[in-house]
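One such given next:
>
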Amino acid sequence: MFNYLIKRLIYSLPIFLGITIITFTVMYTTPGKPTDMIADFNIKVTAEAKERLVKLYGLDKPLHEQYWNWLKRVAVLDFGNSFKDGRAASEKILERLPATVLLNVLSIIVMLVIAVPIGVYSAVKRYSLFDRILTVIIFVCFSVPAFWIALLLMIVVGLWLGWLPISGLISFNFENLSFFCKLWDLAKHLILPLIVSTLGSFAVLSRYIRSGMLDVLKQDYIKTAYAKGLSKKQVIFNHALKNVLLPLITIIGLSIPGLIGGSFIIETIFSYPGMGRLGYDAIVARDYPVIMGIGVISAFLTLLGNIVADVLYSVADPRIRYK
């Protein structure tokens, strides 16, 4: 296993570099430059001043030279300074990190707590009224875009009923609240983004669990377990559920990048102060250091998630061995 992990890490390095090259190239070849955002909206900025800005940011150098200079800085964990406000890109990313991790960890926990029991029950009660109703609900969750649900919840729950806040993470008077009022204030702001971020992944995972459980329940060892006199509960939880863990591991592995990368759409719609909104603002402002910083972290976590999933596969299923 150790040798396998070393090989995977070595193989991941060229993939990681490939992702950064593609991201860097696409970003720099997209129409619009950071200097345009500064100069075009300020009539006092002359053409000479704009040219000096281009040289200051190093945008006048060939693309491969800019990439090489950026790569050397990243090797020592320096993502450069933001073109927007001059602050270190790593500092801006670290500021948004806790909010995104909080939202996505809660989303994964809620998804697992709801999707796994529902998927198992739906498989055990196949074609029952519950299964049919759940199937309709899940396909609706699949079909409806997340941004549409987000806007609908904001209008109905936030504006018409006034039950929950529709933007931000905390209220303006947060510092003046008591401890428990702060917790409630934080929870109120998290409910709507949490619902929207959980719906899609919940639908996917519950279908995976149901499909996997249906296959497992047909296996001979399940019939043998029933023949030995075990109860239905023992058969499902002690024998069947263990063998349905592989799709669960796949979903968890794919969720790791989301812990940091965040969701651009959800965080932008709810004005949630996380990594996704930071990335959206950076793209709009052509803030290259911040865009590349978020891109590097997302690429690293995507590769890490795949490796973690591969390792967990062998733990969940002893038949899987890596050489």
About this structure: The radius of gyration is 24 Å. The mean pLDDT is 82. The chain is about 75% helix and 0% strand.
